[in-house]
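Please decode residue identities from the backbone states below.
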């Protein structure tokens, strides 16, 4: 988190960060990956942002929630753009919580990586009050500062979840396996591209995993795996210190040409062309 906060000219050693809502100046235009949870509420102005290589316009009352491993790139912003940010690490939030997937299983992440919704003025004001309250308590000298902050963050997440579609399917069994599958992908996708590895890790059959993933996401395991592998590729390509050969090796492709074919199939661009378009050098 420290490295990402430095992109916003913020210095912090804590396991969570909440901003004051002031202008953050020029936003980073090179893609970066957030390895923590994020809640972002636009207060004023607008910005054009790419999230996992999909472009969105983020304007007043737009709310973004994203989970770890989401790749972000700011393309442009208005002069008056302001936003409230809440970053937090999962381990901080889940201290003394028995269910490690409680955040992922909520309707905040029905898209399984990020979600963008537009709030009403009233809902936006409610959320701003909670974020300001978190800022106040996290800056206090209370001996219970961490416990208070953790409780307020949970409150914020539950309020946001309540804003989401209340008809969202809450059948937890296939979702639980799906989220566990996604957690495994975050850890192993650069080395393991065999569906059987993930089925074995989840102690289910290959056929059952295919059925569960299709039911939970509408996609095949290979399609989800390709999405996570592409995210990893975007993140690595955003680092100009790594050449294409190093990236192909790190992602466990048998040859640079194999990586190039995979990337072009997913994006219609070669890795080299993608870097040129993104001005990464």
């Amino acid at each position: 988190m420290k490295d990402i906060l430095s992109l916003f000219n913020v210095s912090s050693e804590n396991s969570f960060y909440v901003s004051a809502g002031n202008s953050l100046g020029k936003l980073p235009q090179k893609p970066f990956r957030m390895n923590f949870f994020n809640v972002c509420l636009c207060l004023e102005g607008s910005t054009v942002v790419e999230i996992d290589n999909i472009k969105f316009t983020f304007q007043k009352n737009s709310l973004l929630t994203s989970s770890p491993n989401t790749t972000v790139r700011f393309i442009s912003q208005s002069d008056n753009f302001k936003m409230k940010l809440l970053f937090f690490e999962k381990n901080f939030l889940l201290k003394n919580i028995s269910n490690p997937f409680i955040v992922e299983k909520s309707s905040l992440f029905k898209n399984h990586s990020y979600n963008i919704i537009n709030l009403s003025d009233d809902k936006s004001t409610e959320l701003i009050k909670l974020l300001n309250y978190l800022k106040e308590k996290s800056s206090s000298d209370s001996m219970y500062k961490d416990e208070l902050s953790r409780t307020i963050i949970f409150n914020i997440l539950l309020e946001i979840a309540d804003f989401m579609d209340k008809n969202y399917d809450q059948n937890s069994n296939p979702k639980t396996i799906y989220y566990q599958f996604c957690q495994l992908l975050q850890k192993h996708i650069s080395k393991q591209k065999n569906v059987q590895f993930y089925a074995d890790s989840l102690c289910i059959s290959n056929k059952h995993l295919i059925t569960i993933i299709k039911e939970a996401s509408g996609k095949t395991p290979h399609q989800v795996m390709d999405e996570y592998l592409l995210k990893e590729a975007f993140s690595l390509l955003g680092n100009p210190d790594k050449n294409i050969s190093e990236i192909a090796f790190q992602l466990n492709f048998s040859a640079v040409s194999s990586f190039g074919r995979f990337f072009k199939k997913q994006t219609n661009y070669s890795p080299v062309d993608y870097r040129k378009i993104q001005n990464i050098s």
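Observation: The mean pLDDT is 85.
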